[in-house]
Amino acid sequence: MMLGAALAAVALSAPTASADPDNPPDFKLPFPCGQTWVMFTYDNHGPGDGSQEQKRIDMQWTEGETDGADVVASAGGTVSHVEPGGVHIDHGDGWFSQYLHMSDRVAEGTEVQEGDWIGTASNVGTNDPHLHYQQMYDSDGNGYPTEGSQTGGPDELVYPIIQGKEYRLTPGNAVNLKSTNNCDGDPGEPEPEPEPEKTKLEYTGDTSLADGESAELSAVLTEEESGAPVADQKVSFELGAEDSAQTCEATTDAEGSATCTVEEVDQPLTDEATVPVTAAFAGDDAFEPSEASATLDLRYVTGRAYGLSAQIPLPLLPIGIDPTPDTGTVRTAGAETKAPQCAERIEALVLSAGPLCAEVVTKTGPNSSTATSTVAEARIGLTGLPVVEISGLTAESSSTCSTTKGSVGLDLTVGGTPVTIPDTPNYEINLGLGAKLVVNEQTPVEGADQGLTVNAVHLTVAGGTDLVIGSTTSAAHNCA
Question: What are the start and end residues of every segment in region (Disordered) (predicted)?
Answer without folding.
Answer: 172-200
